[in-house]
Amino acid sequence: LKQTLSMEASALPGAQALPGAPQLPGPLAPYAGVLRAVKIFQELTNAQLAEATGFGELCQAAQGERLFEEGQEAEFFYIILEGELQILKKVDGAQAELPLATHRPPHITG
């Protein structure tokens, strides 16, 4: 599926640090509450979550930027921390694209 990322200008409330959320190093620190809500991280201890997020990096995408195309081999997965990710599908090989879904935090794709 073709995917485009549309980032909103303002942060969502979930991007705020929550009481009891782990202290994460570096640029992911403000997103500890959002990361804790991601299903694959829910069972981790705060120390494990901090270690796991050390393997990732924070990136921003411009509105309309495509992260990957249908059939492309996945190299990464993305955790949506702010904004929206719109999933699009070309219809019958035409130039038109059909919106299939919109993902918001906390959601994983890739």
What does this structure look like?
With 110 residues, the chain is an alpha+beta fold. 13% of the residues lie in helices and 25% in strands. It has two helices and six strands. The strands form two sheets. Strands 2-1-4-5 form a four-stranded antiparallel beta sheet, with no helix packed on it. The longest helix is centred in the middle third of the chain and has 8 residues, at 46-53. The chain is elongated. The N and C termini lie close together (10 Å). The model is unreliable at 1-19 (pLDDT under 50).
Radius of gyration: 15 Å
> Which quaternary structure do these chains form?
single chain
Mean pLDDT: 75
- Number of helices, where a helix is a run of at least 4 consecutive DSSP H or I residues: 2
What helical percentage do the residues reach? Answer: 10-25%
Order of SSEs = EHHEEEEE
Question: Beta-strand level of the residues, as a percent range?
Answer: 15-25%
Give a summary of the structure in a few sentences.
With 110 residues, the chain is an alpha+beta fold. The chain has two helices and six strands; from the N terminus they run βααβββββ.
Outline the fold blueprint.
Blueprint: E1 2-6, H1 32-37, H2 46-53, E2 65-66, E3 78-80, E4 84-90, E5 97-103, E6 107-109
Antiparallel strand pairs: 1-2, 1-4, 3-6, 4-5
List the main descriptive attributes of the protein structure presented here.
single chain, 4-stranded antiparallel sheet, two-stranded antiparallel ribbon, 6 strands
